[in-house]
Amino acid sequence: MEISSKENTQFFSNNTILPVDRSSFKSESSASKEKQSCCGGIKIFLGALSFVYFAKALSGSYLKSTITQIERRFDIPSSLVGVIDGSFEIGNLLIIILVSYFGAKLHRPRIIGTGCLIMSAGTFLIAMPQFFMGRYRYERLHSTINSTVSISPCLQDKNQTPISVWEKSQAKINAGCEKEAGSSMWIYVLLGNLLRGIGETPIQPLGITYIDDHAIEENAALYIGCVQTVAIIGPIFGFLLGSLCAKLYVDIGFVDLDSVTITHKDVQWVGAWWLGYLIAGVISVLAGIPFWFLPRHLPKPESRKDSSTSSEQSKFITEDNKDQHKSYQQQVKMSEMAKDFLPSLKNLFGNPVYILYLCASIIQFNSLIGMVTYKPKYIEQQYGQTSSKTNFVIGLINIPAVAFGILSGGLIMKKFRISVLGAAKLSLGSSFFGYLLLLSLFAMGCENSDVAGLTVSYHGTKWTSDYEQALFSECNSGCACSKSDWDPICGENGVTYISACLAGCQAFNGSGKNTVFFNCSCVGTLESPSRRSSAVVGPCQKGNECPKMFLYFLVISVITSYTLSVGGTPGYILLLRCIKPHLKSFALGIYTLAIRVLAGIPAPVYFGVAIDTTCLKWGSKRCGGRGACRLYDSRALRYVYLGLTLVLGMVSIFFSIAVLWVLRKRSSPQDETVSANGERGTCETKSRKDNFVNNDHLIQTTYWPEKETRL
How does it sit in the membrane (predicted)? Predict the structure, then answer.
């Protein structure tokens, strides 16, 4: 009886356990479904965000590739081009604080989708002037003259030219003056770039924090790394697209290409710069569509529901269930959220590591943004390369080097479990050796091309003292030439002449690109003054040593790009580890704001002003006034461009040394690992292993504005 009673007791106890097991099974099943739903949703968002990063990186890098094209098309100086380039940062500046602080409380995917639409509208607006300002006109006097009429380019008397030809030429000049107001349409390019900046603003802070909030903690770094990797691919396609469009004539589809008398190697050539903006605008529209169908919040992973500091949004919005979210959302008001703004700002600026690193970054980005903005111009002017080849080289060689450097920095941090103090050392070392390599580029330049009247005299003497007066000589004194014209020809003696008239040419044969000039009285003066020689259309090529120097430049440039990029990820980790966790997004917003205001806006402007001082020959607008620069002093350009970049870089290194000194001072001799302290907001010591494991989701490739194109 006792045994049977025990069996019955055991039987009933087993029966009472069964319902518990079933409920447990149901909860596990629902959790599994929730996990699958969460993973599916976050992966869809990840794919959409990666495409947006690709779109914005492509349009941003394409703008860099068209800097020289825009300068020539609108006939404006480099300083004004710098203002246009900086307008992107101004647009970003207008709303970055609002987006980074208040955007996390709103529907983040739809805000990103709205930003994509604004970004595409700005991209389309940049291309619009091409359709309203008339056809592009370049300086070619002999192209307006019928080749069947024997006319001397050295016009000693207006009566020498048929009246119909002069009337036709004068009519074209008058028509150009009537449309001179069209040159002010560069304002639309500026406004379009401004809209691009406004639209791009929410993508990075809201997109990254959305992933960080809803992804499984151990997968967050992988997801963000995927986004940044795709973002690096964008500039590659952007510069390759710029290379392709630069080979196409600006008015392709509007004029007969057989009537074009210049080639893509000519300094006056303008490619189809507008075509790439139309393509980039369409891509931006497509990239924004998925975000309108994504939910405001995804189910939070089970592993992160109990975390109080995994995301800044947990301070403001609780997402455990809908009831709690709704009740809390009703209590929160904009005024209450704004109360924490000034205390958070004060706490942030009271952190010495953050302030010093911010100063170092501002100065370094002044150096790098100015460098990348005018790198295509530098390659074209210094080494005599075409715009198409320049963009191709930057897109296919430099950008992958930057991507590999960023990836290497992240792998080094993860493999060797480098502490924050070690990250500061790695960032400092990469900057130091990168700028040291940059110093060697001073010896890898080309000498000025021999241009009669500018870099050499008509008698072969180097460096004339007065460039304007030196344009005229005894050999062309009998010609009625204009010193403002720029229609270069290459003499058979290897010297470039500003125009066929200033070369003293008496006749020509052929038309367009195949024109050959004869009996040029100035061409033979360098070797045999009595001999009159011929010349062909277009400037002469640079010296024989220039192609070799260009190859050396590419090698050093790639190594420099890689070296400087290695320190990007360690610097990013240093920034995130030394601030309070709940101030992460706000700190990044302030950081981005400072970079844009104090580096992104002014750097292209003062770099452009400095580069303009090296101009030897300015173009002239049809109705008077100074246009774009036609020829630069190669030596002066090299010293100004590289010198300004190097000086700013060295100053930033001193601030990086100060960061390292503060970190050493705050670390203990036994353990130099530094982590974020939530109470004081300063850096204190912690074990290296715990610090790295707890913050492993922060190990990610960094992506800052212009990072993908800065080198």
Answer: Multi-pass membrane protein
Which stretch of 132-146, 370-384, 653-667 has the lowest confidence by average pLDDT?
A: 132-146
* Whether residues 479 and 348 fall in one domain: no
pLDDT in tens, 449-467: 888 888 887 766 665 455 5
Distance from C-alpha of 482 to C-alpha of 624, rounded to nearest angstrom: 13
In which band, very low, low, confident or very high, does the pLDDT at 139 lie, cut at 50, 70 and 90? low
What DSSP line would sit under 151-175, residue for residue?
A: --SS-S-GGGS-HHHHHHHHHHHHH
Name the strand (E) or helix (H) holding 609: helix 602-612
CB neighbours of 18 closer than 8 A, spacing ≥ 6? none
Closest Cα partner for 197 from 102, 121, 291, 289?
Answer: 121
Is residue 314 pLDDT above 50, yes or no?
Answer: no
Residue 502 CA to residue 560 CA, distance in Å, equals 43
607 found inside a domain = yes
Question: Running DSSP on this structure, what letter comes out for residue 397?
Answer: I
* DSSP per-residue letters across 297-366: -PPPPGGGTT-SSS-GGGGT---S-HHHHHHHHHH--HHHHHHTHHHHHHHHHT-HHHHHHHHHHHHHHH
pLDDT-based confidence at residue 103 (cuts at 50, 70, 90): low
More confident residue, 625 or 469: 625
Same domain, 201 and 87: yes
Residue 359, domain member (yes or no)? yes
Rounded to whole angstroms, the maximal C-alpha distance in the chain is: 139
Contact 55, 234 (CB under 8 A): yes
